[in-house]
Amino acid sequence: MTVDFHTHCFPDSIAPRAMENLTRISVYPPHTSGTLGALKESMSRAGIDRSVVQSIATNPKQTENVNNFAIAANEDERIIAFGSVHPDCENAVSELARLKAHGIKGIKFHPDFQDFEVDDRRMYPLYEKVAEFGFIMLFHCGHDLDPRAKYNCTPKSFARVASDFRGAIVVGAHLGGQDMWNEVFEHVCGIDAYVDTSYGFGWLNSEQLHRFLNEHDSHKILFGTDSPWQSQTADVEMMKERIQDKKLYHKIMGENAARILSL
Questions:
Q1: Contacts for 20-28 with beta carbons within 8 Å, 24 or more apart?
Q2: What share of the chain has pLDDT > 90, as a percent?
C-alpha cells in the first residue's frame, strides 16, 4: 500500500479562488486544479492507494466549514481527511469532539497561516485536548510557499513541542523543517517524532539523505508530496530512485502510515 501523508484539496465551489490566491504567493506552480476529484485522478496516475488531506482553518470562522469538508471527504475510501481547529476558535473542544465522532484521525496545524508560534505555551492546552482525543498532530515546519513569510515553526521549536507531547503521535511536515536542513539535523534527527518527506527527500543531496536515513528512526518517516504543489507521480518515481533498500522503501511509502492510521 502506498500512502501520501501530505496532500491538499478544496471544495469544488472554492477551489478556483483558493488556488488562484495561493498560486499568487507561491514560488511553486500547482500540478492539479486543487479539487478532490483532481487529487483522486492524480493518485490513480501515481499508483497511490490513500491520500491524507491536510486542511487548514486560517481564521476562527472557517473552522466549522473546513471540518465539514474534511468529514465529507473522509467518506471516500481512498481519502483520509484531517481536521483543523484555529487557535482562536471559541468552540475548539466541541469541534474536536465532533471530528472524533465522525472518524477523523488527525489535526493539521499551520503556525504560519494560523499566526501562532508553535511552542507558545498558550497553545499547549489545545494540544493537550487534541492529544486527549487521540488525534495525530501534524505541524507545518520550516519554510513555505511564500519565501517572504515569517516562519513560526522552526526545527528547534517543533522538536520542543514533540518532546513535551511525547505520548501523542506528532508529525513534522517537510522533514521537520523545510529548507532548514542544518537545523533539522541538529534538532529533529533522532527525536521521538514522525516526519513526512514532502519538500524533503527530493531536496536533500545524496550525503544529506544518507545522513538523515542513518540518524532518524526509519519507522517514523512518512511519504508525503504536498500535492497539488508537487506532482505525486514525480515524487513516487523520485522515492524509487533515492531509496534503494526495498524494505525501507515500503516502510516509508506506506507501512509506517498504515500503522499509525490503523489501515
A1: 22/145, 25/145, 25/146, 26/145, 26/146, 26/229, 27/145, 27/146, 27/147, 28/145, 28/229, 28/230
A2: 89
Alpha-carbon gap, residue 162 to 148, rounded angstroms:
26
Which sequence spans correspond to the domains of the chain? Answer: 3-261
pLDDT digit string, tens, across residues 120-132: 999 999 999 999 9
Residue 255 CB partners (closer than 8 Å, separation 6+): 1
- In CATH terms, the superfamily for domain 3-261 is Metal-dependent hydrolases (3.20.20.140)
Backbone angles phi, psi at 83, to 5 degrees: -95, 180
Tens of pLDDT along 75-101? 999 999 999 999 999 999 999 999 999
The maximal CA–CA distance of the chain, rounded, in angstroms, is 48
CA distance 253 to 149: 31
